[in-house]
Amino acid sequence: MSVRYLSCGDTAFTVEFGNEISPEINARVMALHVAIDRAKAVGELPGVVETVPTMRSLMVAYDPLAASRAELQPRIDALIARGLPTGLASRRVTLPCCYDDPEFASDLAEVAKRTKKTVEQVIAAHLASPFKVYVLGFMPGLAYIAGLDQTLYLPRRSQPRVRVPRSSVAIAMDMTTIYPFESPGGWHLIGRTPLWMFDKRREQPVFLAPGDSLSFQRIDRKTFDRIAREVDAGTFDWSTLVKA
Fold first, then answer.
1. Domain boundaries, the chain
2. Confidence of residue 21 (pLDDT cuts 50, 70, 90)
3. How far apart are CA 26 and CA 35, in angstroms?
């Protein structure tokens, strides 16, 4: 397995597995992420501070007073040569999503028209998509989630919105995402979850993580409002969404 090393300043470097986005390449990224974490735990990689997975590469941050890239790179090469872990377990996360309220799904009818489907067929395809979180980026808690049904592929909107409401569920290209805050955005809005993807009140403010397997569960507006009240009050049980 060939990789390319790229400098990221004097305290980090990137291990790049390829120049395309694919499940196979992302699986290698996550495997090295786990392998380095395990090596750190037994003292094999002193100086490594953290690793940050992306769609097709892994950034390795290190303490330059404890180790150098020249020391760490051959050790990582050796990890890869020994064989990266396979069959890694991932969290299985199910997120509630309301597709039925026009306030939440302002682009749903247009998506249906452009993909030559009915609205119900668009919803069914989104619900059936085998999603996986590839990377977090752009803003805290925003996950780039691959696996969208190919029949729903669309480019971003030609005119981005100035404001997209927090917790909007959107699609573009081969991905879906959930906006963690109100922000500008150019993806197609097809629903909304009552959950907050970033909440500083939680011990772990960011809910989703790279490697998570993800699916959506359809809910009506009444259920949405009930869960939203619990989330706002800080009483929602997040553990009900996750299976190991």
1. 4-82, 92-243
2. confident
3. 14
